[in-house]
Write a structure and sequence with these properties.
Elements: H1 10-21, H2 26-32, H3 37-50, H4 61-88
Helix pairs in contact: 1-3
């Protein structure tokens, strides 16, 4: 059975990053707090690069462009649906 996805507060993430920065081994932190090493590594990287754990501040240019295009595509699909619905009866 797959593990249920958990969410962590920015405060919790920062606490674990600070433990790492103060010399505690990554593997020890991951085991003690029951998180994956990849999650901890991502939090450490995000904190170093942007001091933020928010995804929108940690995306590459390509990821930002893709998100923007997806949002625009959704808007256009909705506009098309509205247009099609309005002109359906005529």
């Amino acid at each position: 059975m797959p593990r249920q996805r958990r969410t962590f507060t920015p405060e919790f993430k920062l606490q674990l990053v600070k433990l790492y920065e103060n010399g505690k081994p990554r593997a020890e932190i991951a085991q003690e707090y029951d998180i994956t090493l990849s999650a901890l590594d991502r939090w450490i990287k995000n904190h170093k690069e942007t001091s933020s754990f928010a995804a929108k501040y940690n995306r590459s240019e390509e990821e930002n462009e893709l998100a923007k295009l997806r949002k625009e595509n959704q808007r256009l699909l909705m506009e098309n649906d509205i247009f099609t619905y309005r002109h359906k009866d005529n």
